[in-house]
Amino acid sequence: MRVVLAGGGTAGHIEPALALADALRHLDRSVGITCVGTERGLETRLVPARGYELELVPAVPLPRAITPSLLTVPGRLAGAINAVSGVLDRVGADILVGFGGYVATPAYLAAKRKGLPIVVHEANPRPGLANRLGARLTDHVFTGFPDAALPKAEFIGTPLRRGIVTLDRLSTGDKARSWFGLENDRPTLLVFGGSQGARSINEAALAAAPVLRRAGIQVLHVIGPNNTVEHEPPPGDPQYVLLPYVDRMDLAYAAADVALCRSGALTCAELTAVGLPAAYVPLPHGNGEQTVNAERVVRGGGGLMVDDAGLSPDWIIQNVLPILRDPERVVVMSEAASRLGRKDADIMLARKVLEIAR
Q1: Which residues are known binding-site members?
Q2: Ordered domains of the chain (ranges, CATH)
Q3: Rounded to an integer, what distance in angstroms lies between the CA atom of residue 27 and that of residue 146?
Q4: At CB < 8 A and 24+ separation, what contacts does 62-70 make?
Q5: Which residues are annotated as a binding site for UDP-N-acetyl-alpha-D-glucosamine?
Q6: Which residues bind UDP-N-acetyl-alpha-D-glucosamine (predicted)?
Q7: What is the pLDDT of residues 299-311, one digit of tens each?
């Protein structure tokens, strides 16, 4: 059997696809897997690093409004559909699974043209254009959010890496803190802004650093691979560890007591799966899905939320610092977050894909 996975651009599209790939191989070692992406996305690094075949096709961004660029879409889309069709032919595809992003639209249309079964997975509560189209072409639609706005959809959760869903933060904590050069007996704040980082979160956390340090809080701060900061915290104790990127996010989660982060679908799925409470700062643009993601966790007691404009050093000091200084509150919020997490979505989706393909 040969499965083609289409999802690219951000980690939110790529990581669930790779988690599904791992689960498929776990269930049936003979399954052949090919990922389809574009040269502009993180898939060019993440997919080969996980040992899977990657085929690149042209990216076709779909404008959200009627603009002059809309006139160029049909020709570019036709070229991308032909490119994906060529991939499907070369690998002898039996089924296509799409996760959204620029590559998903031509992939869905190419698979439909060839009569291949299509599976759509949408991680966000508000689907993008590609998955709204894909959902019209198939009866096999699965979501990572309970109330996602797609017809015929079945909620199963978001596929996550085994290293995340099997993580025992309590038993791994000391090892994880040592990995990052942190002390074992201090409250730890993890700061990150998704796979690309977030300038507003970076600036607010760095400005709050002196007060956090005086309160005995150590910080693991992932600023993003393309971001820089004007002033790094001076060396000293407690530690303030500043890193451009972390490949072992499982260890980052294990090292932390609380996170300060964006609220993308993948981030919320991972943090609830491992039971890590967070202060969520939804992305201020887009279609508002990050706010909806965070609201669900906040209602369940597993986090706080502040809009991007309201995030400041004072907000961190007044809202996040008291949680870090209250171990009992951290435990209560951790348990609340874990009740919202799903740890079996990768295996569940893999079984569905194999059943549909057969």
Answers
A1: 10-12, 124, 161, 195, 290
A2: 2-160+343-357 (3.40.50.2000), 167-339 (3.40.50.2000)
A3: 26
A4: 62/105, 62/129, 62/130, 64/129
A5: 10-12, 124, 161, 195, 290
A6: 10-12, 124, 161, 195, 290
A7: 999 999 999 999 9
